[in-house]
Automatic annotation (TrEMBL):
SUPFAM superfamilies: Bet v1-like (SSF55961). It comes from the Bacteria. This is Activator of HSP90 ATPase. Pfam families: AHSA1. InterPro entries: ASHA1/2-like_C, START-like_dom_sf. It comes from Pseudonocardia hydrocarbonoxydans. Belongs to the AHA1 family. CDD domains: SRPBCC_CalC_Aha1-like. Residues 22-159 form the Activator of Hsp90 ATPase homologue 1/2-like C-terminal domain.
Amino acid sequence: MPVTDVTHDMDALTLTIVADFAAPPERIWQVYADPRQLERVWGPPTYPATVVDHDLRPGGRMTYYMTSPEGEKFAGYWEIATVDEPAGFTFDDGFAHLDFTPNTEMPVSRNEFRFAARDGGTRATYVSTYATADALQQVLDMGVVEGASSAINQIDALVS
């Protein structure tokens, strides 16, 4: 499994996931830069993602929804802050209504995805920072660790 470490720090308000892939950073970058590839790994296996808009540049926006096994849709968005191809990018990730307007009753996280060459492959570090400990606890209670880990673990099959 690519995910090698998961930690959350209630004082720093962060959730950090580390994964190691047997592919170079440029290949891991492509997974996020191509909406069709991203769809294959953004949601957990039982909640596949559909990317609707994908503009991976500073000021850009990505919208998507995940579909449950029962057919229920859950929407979200990214607001891209910085891009450093192929080393990573930063963005705000939020929950949305089905028309992709932000759901302000749900937490928003600031995310930093970094891809660094390591041992002939890539070490990916995913850091999500929340505004409050309550917001971090809310997503932990929703199963974000299990969901994000199972989603990230799908990348190996895609890039091999």
